Every structure is written in C-alpha cells, then in structure tokens.
Amino acid sequence: MTKSTMGTKLPRKLDQKMQIVGEQIRLARLRRNLSIAQIAERATCSPLTVSRIEKGTPTVAIGIYLRVLYALQLDDDILLLAKEDVIGKALQDLRLKKRERASKKNKV
After folding, report:
1. CB neighbours (10 Å) of residue 36?
2. Which among 33, 64, 44 has a CA at the least distance from the CA of 54?
3. pLDDT(28) > 60
4. pLDDT band (50, 70, 90) for residue 98
5. Residue 54, exposed/middle/buried by CB under 10 A (0-12, 13-18, 19+)?
6. Are 25 and 69 in contact (CB under 8 A)?
7. How far is CA 92 from each of CA 6, 85, 87, 98, rounded to the nearest angstrom?
8. How far is CA 24 from the centre of its chain?
9. How far apart are the first and last CA of the chain?
10. Which DSSP state fits 45?
C-alpha cells in the first residue's frame, strides 16, 4: 500500500457504512428537492465535495459533513453518534461493582 492510498482505504464494513450515510444524505437532499449545487452553496463547499459525501468517500472531513447536514437542517443528528455506548457502559458497570466479602466479625 502506498503512502498516498494508506489513509483512504477502509475496511469493507466501514466502507459500506460510509456508503449508507452518503445515500441517506442524498435522499434527504432529494426529499427537499435541492440540487447538489444548492447544498454546496449553503454548505460553502464545492459540488464535487457534496457528490463525494453522497458517494461515501472516506476522505471528506467531518466538518464538511456537519456543514452539509446543517444545510439540510439535519445537524442535530450528529449528536446521535456514539450516544448508546453499550460496550462502554458495560465496562464501566463492571468497574463499579464492589466485591462483597464476608464480615470480619470474630467467630465464636
């Protein structure tokens, strides 16, 4: 793998998720009857960048995603990322559980 492509390749599972996010953003734009050019203007980026977002290209900065979501009035959706941290909560609960020990009273 060359240095120029090292940062752009994602595992297949993540690549599929990026494509799904892109498709969801594209559908949101189409539901609002907006062109790529209109979203690009509102998000202060190029139409090519919006097109890359809709294709799920992994090299687009998250700040641009936020501006596109804002242009679509979906910026609050970003707050749903990592909201339900099931694994983290389970790990935290394991650390919080105190070990119960037998009492230290003198035996008769």
Report:
1. 17
2. 64
3. yes
4. low
5. buried
6. yes
7. 34, 10, 9, 12
8. 12
9. 73
10. S
Find where tokens 């909201």 sit: 83
Contacts with 22 (C-beta within 8 Å, 6 or more apart), sequence order: 53, 54, 55, 56, 57
Alpha-carbon gap, residue 28 to 26, rounded angstroms: 5
Taking a C-beta distance cutoff of 8 angstroms, is the pair 7, 59 a contact? yes
State residue 4's pLDDT score: 52
- Token look-up 């240095």 returns 3
> What is the model's pTM?
0.77
Which amino acid is residue 97, in one-letter code?
A: K
pLDDT tens profile 54-95: 999 999 999 999 999 999 999 999 999 888 899 988 888 888
Predicted local distance difference test score (pLDDT) of residue 42: 97
**Do residues 67 and 78 lie in contact, with contact meaning Cβ atoms separated by under 8 Å?**
no
